[in-house]
Design brief:
Blueprint lengths: L3 E4 L3 E7 L3 E6 L2 E8 L2 E8 L2 E8 L2 E15 L2 E8 L8 H27 L14
Parallel strand pairs: 1-2, 2-3, 3-4, 4-5, 5-6, 6-7, 7-8
Length: about 130
């Protein structure tokens, strides 16, 4: 397990680089539980294009909450042009929209993040040592 990783494609608990993957990821393409970058995807995502459970960015898609110039949120959205709120009443269309947002998050972020966390050579599972 690498605690801190730097480089072009860093993988670690804290990863800083172009294609960063980690629990805390900072980079142009950041994938992590907390992701900060131009394209940020994770649970909490901040970036120009952000997708996560909570997203903040120019274009933000959040399963729970989103904020930005164009924000799409499942429960709460704030921004210049914002879509999403389950508070006024639960309708079939709003439930389907929430399910669609969760499905988009899972396929765009969840599978990648789960793979990065538990795969061999990923964040928490070291790669096997080469045989001599």
């Amino acid at each position: 397990m690498r605690a801190v990783a730097f480089g072009v494609e860093p993988v670690g608990v804290v990863a800083v680089g172009a294609n960063a993957t980690g629990v805390i990821a900072i980079g142009q393409l950041a994938t992590g539980v907390i992701a900060v970058g131009q394209l940020a995807r994770g649970v909490v995502a901040v970036g120009q294009l952000a997708i996560g459970w909570v997203a903040l960015g120019q274009l933000a898609v959040g399963v729970w909450s989103a904020g930005g110039m164009l924000a799409v949120g499942g429960h709460n959205a704030r921004g210049l042009l914002a879509f999403g709120s389950l508070r006024p009443g639960v309708t079939t269309l709003r439930v389907l929209a929430a399910v669609a947002i969760v499905a988009v998050w899972w396929f765009a972020v969840g599978t990648w993040l789960l793979d990065a966390l538990v795969r061999e050579g990923g964040i928490f599972v070291d790669a096997p040592r080469p045989l001599r």
